[in-house]
Structure prediction request, 157 residues.
Amino acid sequence: MTWGPGSAEVDTLLEGGELERVTPDSDLAVRLLADSARHIESARSAAALGDLTGAYQLAYDALRKAAAALLAVQGLRATSRGGHIAIQDAVRAQFGGPGSPFLSFGRIRRNRNAYEYPDSDEAGPDVGDVEDAVAVSRDALAAAHALMESGELGLWA
Prediction:
């Protein structure tokens, strides 16, 4: 069985060497989801301490790991060539329908990069930025759990 939504985009990522097929691993997916949940809590703690850049990074990592968990269940993994953008593109293509938290992946990733590698005149995230990233990550984690529990995720053959 092959997953239908976004299949053309995922096939393109596979053909371009940005994603690779691996053995489907639900245990890894569960660990990634647990990491995601911990990162969300750590982001909240870091924000409370005033470490807004660190909090944003943790919220982004929570989002990325929730997305990577969905790929792990399907037997997909980003290569070093594809990296985080391949995870973003694959998950958005498959699960990025209206209202999906995965639609915000690219925005959160770009902001994270700007905050982690700032120009001298660029400010870091503010409290609202962190709250938004945490909310998106929390929603992505919930969506990933729901998708995995649905049993409808197919494998890439």
Summary: The first helix runs from residue 7 to 15. The first strand starts at residue 19 and ends at 21.
